[in-house]
């Protein structure tokens, strides 16, 4: 592994750690309701917009760091791993990223210009607009990507196995979040498991880069 490759791996790993941590914080703080009356809109946005700025930064950092997963697995990475990274990348973009832009960009502008109409507009947007289709598709792609990434991690045997099980648990929790008996318990916080896996993957990527560097240094000394 060259010095340039190690730097890329470290940078990718740090991005995954930072993005995963920010994603966990954002989803813990994420409001579990949407305003039902015009008077609730501005207080909701005041709390929601900063959280989604953090989440948007998390999404960008994780997307930037995902290639490091493939680099860490090296020759043991297969087409399954590549498919998982691609699915997770676009899933994050459409499911999390687009949603964030709405929350910290479009909603505040609408709240100040059309405060009495914003709730009706949002309901119509989620009732069958192209945006709603993209976000729904993105959510399904992200969950599929988590599952495929988990399989690739177990197949390669390079990254900690608990990260794969955390990815699988994300999908299980997502299903439980929509079931009436468990919705109140899980709600919209199930992505915490997804970002926790990214933290673990990032740590392994950084640690792997340092391990390779130490091995090469010892080989150079022996020569």
Q: What is Rg?
A: 20 Å
Enumerate how many helices there are, as a single number: 9
**Overall shape:** elongated
Structural class: mainly alpha
**What's the domain count?**
1
Major β-sheet annotation = none
- Catalogue the unreliable spans: none
Overall pLDDT score: 88
Description:
By secondary structure, the chain is mostly helical. It has one domain (3-222). Helix content is 83%, strand content 0%. The chain has helices at residues 3-29, 41-65, 67-73, 79-113, 118-126, 130-156, 161-177, 180-186, 191-222. Helix 1 runs antiparallel to helix 9 and helix 6 packs antiparallel against helix 7 (161-177). The longest helix has 35 residues, at 79-113. The two termini are 17 Å apart. The mean pLDDT is 88.
Task: From the structure above, extract its key features.
mainly alpha; 223 residues
In short:
By secondary structure, the chain is mostly helical. It contains nine helices and no strands. The protein has one domain.
